[in-house]
Amino acid sequence: MCHACRAALGGAVYAPADGVWKLETAGAAAIYAGGWGGPPAGMELRGCGERTYCFVVEDGFTAQGNTDASLRVYGPVGSSVRGLLTIPVESDDPDGSTKLSAAVRFVPRASRLPFFDAEVMTVRQKCANGHCSIMREETVYRYRDGEYAELQGSVIRPAKAKEK
After folding, report:
1. Contact 11, 76 (CB under 8 A)
2. Nearest to 48 by CA among 70, 19, 77, 69
3. Distance (Å, rounded) from C-alpha 157 to C-alpha 145?
4. How many angstroms separate the CA atoms of 113 and 49, rounded?
5. What letter would DSSP give residue 2?
6. Distance between CA atoms of 157 and 17, rounded to whole angstroms?
């Protein structure tokens, strides 16, 4: 196997109808992620709507000392399973001075959309000359027209500058 070989993962949604389970949505290869031919280590099934589940995947690739990673959300849309949201996450850089991580949670709001709002929390730590600062951001995304889009004015940046 090669280190760049990714797994193709699919998903399906079944619902009871007339006393039997019927296929509502399917995606044979909705997600390409992982490495060495295996699935990604960071994959979770999460409730992202009132009766809807999504895959949340943190996946990346390392080459030449750089790690590029993304936080991705996949879910059922119509009769397929497809990508809904991608948040780039650069987990480190060659000299190790900056680290970035992200997490997503789905929050029910007073809207009648098929998916809950997605709140993405990011933490960036930057170190230079023995001092480190941490910056936290929270961005809210709302599902519209087949994808998530950032809500204007939704970025919250709590105080940064923590020194060690």
Report:
1. yes
2. 77
3. 28
4. 8
5. -
6. 47
Whole-angstrom Cα distance, residue 94 to residue 74?
30
Cα 39 to Cα 14: distance, rounded to the nearest angstrom = 23
| DSSP bridge pairs for 78 | none
What value, to the nearest 5°, has the Cα angle with vertex 140 and ends 78 and 104? Answer: 75
| Both structure tokens of 11 | 């998903």
Q: What is the C-alpha separation between 24 and 157, in angstroms, rounded?
A: 40
pLDDT tens track for 60-103: 776 666 667 788 888 888 888 888 888 877 655 555 566 767 77
Q: Exposure of 4 by Cβ count < 10 A (0-12 exposed, 13-18 middle, 19+ buried)?
A: exposed
Q: How much is the pTM?
A: 0.73
